[in-house]
Fold these 2 entries.
Entry 1:
Amino acid sequence: MLTQINGLHHVTSLASGAQDNNAFFTKTLGLRRVKKTVNFDAPDVYHLYYGDETGSPGSVMTYFPFPGARRGRSGSGEVATTAFTVPKDALPFWEQRLADHKVAGLQKGSRFGADVLAFQGPDGDGFALVTGDDERSPWVSQDVPEEVAIRGFHSADMRLAPRGAAASAELLRFMGYETAERDGNVTRFQVPGGTAANVIDISEVDAPQADQGAGSVHHIAFSVDNREKQLEVRRALMDTGYQVTPVIDRDYFWAIYFRSPGGVLFEVATNEPGFDRDEDTAHLGEALKLPSQHEHLRGRLEELLEPIHD
Ligand code: ZN
């Protein structure tokens, strides 16, 4: 069993438009855009990162916006819901705010004893706010005061068919997660001694395979402290029979990827070097940053990419 994984690092999804996506995360949810760059593998598409002040691992929601992309169809084999933690008494504020902003899919409920407010992102993305005690400092924006602001990720909920669910549970245990609780068809996994973003839920469903599109999660990334621990994880996964990519330099972290048995793409990302690698913390996310291999495309990309008005 591995001990290097701390919890979630980031969650990356697909969107249909950069402007709407940016407005939703920075204005409606009050997160900070911590990086404006491009998809390193397809540089004519943005890669936008939203999180806390510095983009701490465990706080960062990221997007590839493909202009006009059709919506995904939800089903099994995907991350159905990404949940953020908010303070205990914050849900009435959010209920009002999300309703005022005409956010779709608002639904109050509870899971594992905590109050939950489910809602949808601009492309039908599945999100939830979960109440809890959380020591993390939030990014504070104009309209979202500190006492109610999002602290970072709480969990990701994978919706899986029974076989994938069983195999994914085994994988999570191998990665250092322990079965914490069960609530109906949902099993909760937690890294003991992990970060505040150390929860993964598996919802076992009997549903057709999801069809990825705008609003779908593309992959979830797990955090390790450094490259050394990442190599240990990579080796252990490969020894267990997983096909894992070589280590890839993503400028702000190092990444390896592999497909989990339930169909969800997993990444393991390092906490180093972080988003202040090429911008001051005070100005994170303001300029279009390009990796050195794509810097020669800057003129063309600045014309091609949808303008984002903050
Ligand atoms: Zn990633």
Entry 2:
Amino acid sequence: MLTLADFVADVRARVDAALDELIPGADISPTRLHEAIRWSVFAGGKRVRPAIVFAVGETFGASRTDLGRTAAAVEMIHTYSLIHDDLPAMDDDDLRRGRATSHRQFDEATAILAGDVLQTLAFKAIATDEVLSPEKRLKLISLMADAAGTPSGMVAGQQLDLDAEGETLSIAALEKIHRQKTGALITASAVAGAIIGEAEEAELVAIRTFAEKLGLLFQITDDLLDVTQGTAALGKTAGKDAAAAKATYPGHYGVEKSHELATQICTEAGAELAALPRDTSLLRGLAEMIAQRKS
Ligand code: GRG
């Protein structure tokens, strides 16, 4: 039987192959742009969002071929957001995925352009995915645009986060920011898998709720890792939340209570799956993996 580790390794191999095919080679002009894109995309990210696309899609019987490009597209949107989030105008960070951030390795203008074009490549990848029907492609494009954009997607969440700098946030306000900034793309990854696997409407609702919990779980563990792990283990600067006086779960609840909250949300996520007449062991395993992640 395929273990979760085998599944994750398989997702990584498939997504990396799709990304390599979709992103122009570093020898193609303008080479600096393509080098920069590849620098960030192939830096060793965990590929969590593609794993969610594959896990949900396979739960509903979609083939891995049908899921590959959409999984790669989500990873491109995610990587663009990291490149832009690290820019001097935003988080001003030097380290990402264990290596220099794009603007440090190249320059600020190139980093902006690398992020911009990763986003357009992502939408092109779905629009031209001939293994999917035109109807599915349209649904996926609209889903991803909402999740990445505004008013309730990732960019809107980033703006809310910037607006809240220096303010004391309630936990409800903090959750709204996270639901958009981190949660929207995670939820869209799950819903995309369900669309490709032709899930029923009621199943889509259950998957969406499951994924929203997964997004929250991901953020709590991200906040915990920021205070409990070092820079080397994370591959990005640790302790940034406290340094920037950001509202976080450990900051609000303390480390121990935040761990308990993570366990509780993982259980709640699992409970959402009970409504699905499917084998959901892969999805439960993925939630456990996110709850226990160390980077
Ligand atoms: C700048 C448009 C724009 C959006 C920024 C994603 C994001 C929104 C900001 C990143 C800031 C951050 C650390 C958010 C917490 C959750 C998160 C997205 C962590 C990074 O994702 P991982 O851990 O990264 O999946 P890897 O490198 O493994 O892919």
